[in-house]
Amino acid sequence: MSSRTTTNRTLLNNLLQETGDSGKLSWEDVEFPPKHNPEWISKVLINGVEYGEARGATKNQARENAAGRAVEAIRKDRAEKAGGK
């Protein structure tokens, strides 16, 4: 990965910093067997509310995927609020 590539986790942290919510971010990670070829499921929680869940072959990959879903959800929320919905 290039150092110029912005990761989903970076985007998520940036969005949360804009609203002062970065301290409210937490993760739930679960590893499923077998140990030699596990699958991870990660959830992004913001102030205890789930904003994204995803799977990955590694914990980092699952977190990155979940962060991408959370970024989409936050942007959608903000667009709806800005549109007066």
From TrEMBL:
Keywords: RNA-binding. It comes from the Eukaryota. One of its GO terms (molecular function) is RNA binding. InterPro entries: dsRBD_dom (IPR014720). Gene3D superfamilies: 3.30.160.20. Coiled coil: none annotated. Residues 7-76 form the DRBM domain. This is DRBM domain-containing protein. It comes from Jaapia argillacea MUCL 33604.
